[in-house]
């Protein structure tokens, strides 16, 4: 029996608009981001897939994107499971900084390494940072990271895939995963077996559902973005 997964990166956030490193800071969607989320819901509805369950992070921008999409689909009743392991990659000491100003200060190459290399994390967030997550009660009992590379992000996403999402999919459920640019890149790396090198060029557009068909071994057999005008190249020849 074929299974369908939909990866949905949240719509434009306030800090996407302001071009700031966001990571674990809980910024909300802009009006454009809300519109992207609704459009994603319309596209998913047109597709006609019957979804059974949904997963998201504990960050407002992903949760609201999912809710707005489900509203458009007329499927607000679907179960939603939230987990911090689907959060955005933690941006360490870059959190809150403007990406262009950071390029001017540290150079394009260094910023590209921080943003897209597989295993080079940015410097850790300092305890004096204006953006601590440590005391946030949603992270009670969580070993809150001080920085993460994509590899470290995958290291905490992968157990959640194995323990929560994969069993549901194996069970025959079609699932939506509403998450973030880098936590979804981590899942793309895992599912499509993308090399450490090739994952550096994978970009997932905001609010554009990526529909993936999986076989019984959870290997992708087809994948495409529903909004083809805003599609990005996919790994694995899809
Ligand atoms: O700032 C962030 O948290 C992420 C996602 O918006 O940015 P980037 O695409 O640079 O990894």
TrEMBL record:
It catalyses: (2R)-2-phosphoglycerate = (2R)-3-phosphoglycerate. Pathway: Carbohydrate degradation; glycolysis; pyruvate from D-glyceraldehyde 3-phosphate: step 3/5. InterPro entries: His_Pase_superF_clade-1 (IPR013078), His_PPase_superfam (IPR029033), Phosphogly_mut1 (IPR005952). Signal peptide: none annotated. It is an enzyme of class 5 (isomerase). One of its GO terms (molecular function) is phosphoglycerate mutase activity. Keywords: Gluconeogenesis, Glycolysis, Isomerase. The record marks 180 as: Transition state stabilizer. This is 2,3-bisphosphoglycerate-dependent phosphoglycerate mutase. Belongs to the phosphoglycerate mutase family. BPG-dependent PGAM subfamily. Homodimer. The active site is at residues 10, 88. Catalyzes the interconversion of 2-phosphoglycerate and 3-phosphoglycerate. Substrate binds at residues 9-16, 22-23, 61, 88-91, 99, 115-116, 181-182. NCBIfam families: pgm_1, PRK14115.1. Its EC number is 5.4.2.11.
């Amino acid at each position: 029996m074929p299974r369908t997964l939909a990866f949905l990166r949240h719509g434009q956030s306030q800090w996407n608009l302001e071009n700031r490193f966001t990571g674990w800071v809980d910024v909300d969607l802009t009006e454009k981001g809300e519109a992207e989320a609704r459009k994603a819901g319309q596209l998913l509805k047109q597709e006609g897939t019957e979804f059974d369950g949904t997963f998201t992070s504990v960050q407002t921008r992903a949760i609201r994107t999912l809710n707005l999409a489900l509203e458009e689909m007329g499927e607000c009743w679907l179960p939603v499971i939230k987990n911090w392991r689907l959060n955005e990659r933690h941006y360490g000491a870059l959190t809150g900084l403007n990406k262009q100003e950071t390029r001017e200060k540290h150079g394009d190459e260094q910023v590209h390494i921080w943003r897209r290399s597989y295993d080079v994390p940015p410097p850790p967030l300092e305890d004096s940072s204006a953006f601590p997550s440590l005391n946030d009660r949603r992270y009670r009992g969580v070993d809150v990271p001080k920085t993460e590379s994509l590899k470290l992000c995958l290291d905490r996403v992968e157990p959640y895939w194995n323990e929560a999402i994969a069993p549901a999919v194996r069970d025959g459920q079609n699932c939506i995963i509403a998450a973030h640019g880098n936590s979804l890149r981590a899942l793309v790396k895992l599912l499509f077996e993308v090399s450490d090198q090739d994952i550096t060029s994978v970009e997932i557009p905001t609010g554009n559902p990526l529909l993936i068909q999986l076989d019984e071994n959870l290997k992708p057999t087809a994948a495409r973005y529903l909004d083809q005008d805003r599609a990005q190249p996919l790994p694995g020849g899809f």
